[in-house]
Please model this.
Amino acid sequence: MHELGIVFHIIRTVEDVAKQNDVTCILRVTLQLGEVSGVVGSYLQDCWKWAAAKTDLLPGAELTVETIPAITQCRACGQQYETVRYGRTCPHCQSPDTYLVQGNEMLIKEIEAVEADETK
Model:
């Protein structure tokens, strides 16, 4: 289960951002996850709940996951299409000469936090 390692990486990154911005509590982290990234969303959520509860800044913080649709482009005809629906073969010209344009990313989009002076 590589999702736990991914969650640890996200938490370290969020903690670094929190230190740089005088943040005392993280309320929510929004993650953009590619449709074909290979990460299982439900495993990620379970790992998040467990790992975030063990931190000083993130206990109870919510992880929101937004899906980035997978899009493939055909080198032969230049058309783009839905990767999950059609796979690697272009539905327009049947060429197998294609490449993934988007859909395997994992990006921290937003961190909702409480700054130190907001808690006073």
